[in-house]
Amino acid sequence: MNYPNGIKKKETFHNISYKNRGMDLESDLNITNQYYRSIDKAHIYKKPTPIKIVKVDYESRHLATIKEAYFQEPSTTDYNGIYKGQYIDFEAKETKSTTSFSLNNIHKHQIRHLKNIVNHGGISFLIVRFVRLDETYLLKAQDLLLFLEKYDRKSIPLSYFQKKGYIIKNKINPRIDYLELIDQIYGGTI
Amino acid sequence: MNYPNGIKKKETFHNISYKNRGMDLESDLNITNQYYRSIDKAHIYKKPTPIKIVKVDYESRHLATIKEAYFQEPSTTDYNGIYKGQYIDFEAKETKSTTSFSLNNIHKHQIRHLKNIVNHGGISFLIVRFVRLDETYLLKAQDLLLFLEKYDRKSIPLSYFQKKGYIIKNKINPRIDYLELIDQIYGGTI
Asked: How high is the mean pLDDT of chain B?
């Protein structure tokens, strides 16, 4: 796999603007996480894209240029960190579909990872944005796993997000306040 | 900063063998974390090296080759994950010095990050290997921060690791069982 979704998507989305939003989900999350850090609310980061480096030119001691490298499949989710002493771990994806979220968007080992985090007491979830609907959902990893156990389907219908998920309202600052939902969902337990 | 320690070190260490050890700290930690995952003890990963991609060749739909990229300074530590429901976060470094660990090895924002993790209730530490002594120490982030507050020095003497740190014994499997020490240090609290 030399062509991760992240990169491909960016290419696509740069040329299209949906409603009043010029930002993609990744940018929104980066800004949101930066905001959380700035007010010392949570320390959650996006992991760097995994890259296999093949050739490096060491032109000088302090300037190394990577001349050949390839994208690698991520073995975990994109985001993790700490909030109220709890381990937070999630994956974020956009879809252009208006009816469902294709499970091709998540790799098997990412699902295994989400399962491990749940089993070890972490707070784990999926953030999915239906770009054309301008709707962003938070779905607990438990509910994702439940869906996968119950149904043999290649995509999760929007209705499942509407029923089991939580909608994340677009705000100015932070742009997508997912921790507000985490507070609501986990209530007094964190 | 286009030349992170990780890359530089590997280059250096490939040609030198110390005592019976052929492996560097990063490899030892990767194998150890893999072992922890395989027995479902903990889910701790090394973050990918942050890289700024400048030029990509999209030769075909499924093969993208990065043709120009640069190493970036990491904004956090290298390792994080979950153990017994707790957020774990640490940095690992090797030194060839036999007397002290230079603080040039850790960036200011990494120290700030370790401080944030401690303040938010995570378990945070430093693993330092004195390669020529074949000694690997675990130093709690709290004791690193204490040192920085107390002393205006450019390096931490080995004696501080001997006094405040915990030695990680070399084992066969896992190679460096740092979670055994975490159990000892945090005892019944986790």
From this structure: 88
3-state class (DSSP) for residue B19? coil
Spatial contact of B47 and A78, defined as CB atoms under 8 Å apart: no
Q: Which residues contact B91 (CB under 8 A, 6 or more apart)?
A: B77, B78, B79, B106, B110, B114, B126, B127
Please write the tens of the pLDDT for every residue from A9-49.
443 334 344 444 457 999 999 999 999 999 999 999 999 99
Alpha carbon dihedral A102, A106, A112, A116, in 10-degree steps, equals -100
Contact of A40 with chain B, judged by CB distance below 8 Å, is answered with yes
How many angstroms separate the CA atoms of A161 and B151, rounded? 54
Contact B7 A69 (CB under 8 A): no
Report ipTM for this prediction: 0.84
Whole-model pTM above 0.80?
Answer: yes
Contact B49 A47 (CB under 8 A): no
- φ and ψ of B24, to 5 deg: -95, 175
Q: Does A83 touch chain B (CB under 8 A)?
A: yes
**Chain B interface test: which of A60, A66, A113, A117 (most B C-beta within 10 Å):** A66
Q: What is chain B's percent helix, strand, coil content, to nearest 5? A: 35, 35, 30
Q: Do B51 and A62 touch (CB under 8 A)?
A: no
Cα distance between residue B190 and residue B49, in whole Å: 30
